[in-house]
Amino acid sequence: MPGSVCASPSKIDPDYFYHWVRDSALVMKFIQTELDKESKKVGNPYEKINLERMMDNYLDFSKYISKNQHPEAKLGEPKYNMDGSMFTDEWGRPQNDGPALRAISTIKYAQYLLDKKENKFQRKKSISHIFCNDCIINKDLEYVINNFGKQGFEIWEEVKGVHFYTSLAQVRALELGSQLAASIDDFEYANKYNSAVKKFSNFTNNFWNSKEGYIKSTIDWTGGLPDKYKDLDSQVILALIHIWDDPQTYISPQLLSRGRYKGDRYNGHNSNGGGNPWPLITSAAAEVYYKLVSKMIYDESIIATREVIDFFKFSAKTINSKTRSEISIRLFEEYLGLLMTPNTAVYKDIIQLLFDSGDEFLRRVKYHTASDGGMKEQWNSETGFNQGAADLTWSYTAFCTMKNSRDAAKRAIKFYTLKYI
């Protein structure tokens, strides 16, 4: 059915030929980013028209499946058949990140449509098919409000509880919903969503493990795998790049992993063996570094907390293959508790360190990617070869968003060089 997005064309061992609400939302968010870029170009509008058609089809499909809800999961149903029919087999449901991520992608498209109009009446009319009492954006945000902090399965579909990734996605969706409503003077919805943001925004503090210095992926466990190592999971990295344009949280060394989590046993076919590194997570780790480069440059300062200093030192000693002198690394310690500013040598060194660290992960992706550019779900931890679901849509999307963030970081470095060096 037009508008459906298959997670992978693989139908046997594993069968991923479904429309996952999460995966499709991430893909279409990237498509919207490309549409934003195409709309600024002068010349042949074919690509822009094609991308708009893709977004419209995705919206139509989303509307269709939202009216074909699972009796238990409702809008939290994680996946549908490619023809839009309900998937009725046993599965880990609900998955409450799906409606939030879909709202984020559709709100971004709504904003694109608004920006094409100048007249206030025309602006409001241009999104009346996706933002109204019975429209997909409003339905998704209503689900977010009603299910915030409730147990569900996380993005790996293995653990039931309350999850950092999901909570962050839900708050971000409500923020964007409030901004969208305010931009068309719909203050009833703007106030409703903004009130929810104020109510929920501090909830993610519950995931911070201050004793050991990392963000727990799950709290209030109620089912699924009980023995994840310290609730430490790479989905925290994914939360940073999927939800925040400007990450503003503690980044600790423990977050940086190419696999999903310690003790993972899913090998792309079953859970009988050891887990493997994933291309999408390795791309995500690179993207975090590139986004930090842009953030440091445009914020023009960073407070050197203990966590920040340890992260820089970890990156210099463990992630980055380029040799850095012990004197340079010790300089980080001298700034502990101070405000680092861009006109210092150490600031320049940190920016380069972060960019180089991102490139370390990028080189790993390049090394394991097939010569034809094909990406599967995983890399075998022993042989390095691709395995699992072929042509995983999420793997490609993760690479593309990482590439966009790297390009943005390069532009930021150019700006920094012209201004301070």
What does this structure look like?
It catalyses: Hydrolysis of terminal (1->4)-linked alpha-D-glucose residues successively from non-reducing ends of the chains with release of beta-D-glucose. This protein is globular. Strand 5 and strand 6 (about 215) form a beta hairpin. The strands form five sheets. It has a three-stranded antiparallel beta sheet with strand order 3-4-7. It has a two-stranded antiparallel sheet with strand order 1-2. It has helices at about 20-40, 45-65, 95-115, 120-125, 135-145, 165-185, 185-200, 235-245, 280-300, 305-320, 325-335, 345-370, 395-420; strands at about 20, 80, 150-155, 160-165, 210, 215, 220-225, 300-305, 340, 380, 385. The longest helix is centred in the last third of the chain and has 28 residues, at about 395-420. By secondary structure, it is mainly α. It has 13 helices and eleven strands. The protein has two domains: about 1-240, Glycosyltransferase, CATH 1.50.10; about 265-420, no CATH class. Helix 3 runs antiparallel to helix 4 and helix 6 packs antiparallel against helix 7 (about 185-200).
The fraction of residues in strands falls at 5-15%
First-to-last CA distance = 54 Å
Largest sheet: 3 strands, antiparallel
CATH topology of the largest domain: Glycosyltransferase
User: Could you state the oligomeric state of the chains shown?
Assistant: single chain
Number of DSSP strand runs: 11
- The total tally of domains equals 2
Count, helices: 13
Low-confidence stretches: 246-261, 263-270
How do the strands line up in the largest sheet? Answer: 3-4-7
- CATH architectural designation of the largest domain: Alpha/alpha barrel
Provide the residue-averaged pLDDT: 89
Helix content class: 40-55%
SS-based class: mainly alpha
Rg for CA atoms: 22 Å
Which CATH top level class of the largest domain fits?
A: Mainly Alpha
Secondary-structure element string: EHHEHHHEEHHEEEHHEHHEHEEH
Q: What overall form do the CA principal axes indicate? A: globular
Domain GH15-like: 2-401
Keywords: Carbohydrate metabolism, Glycosidase, Hydrolase, Polysaccharide degradation
Enzyme class: hydrolase
InterPro entries: 6-hairpin_glycosidase_sf (IPR008928), 6hp_glycosidase-like_sf (IPR012341), GH15-like (IPR011613), Glucoamylase (IPR000165)
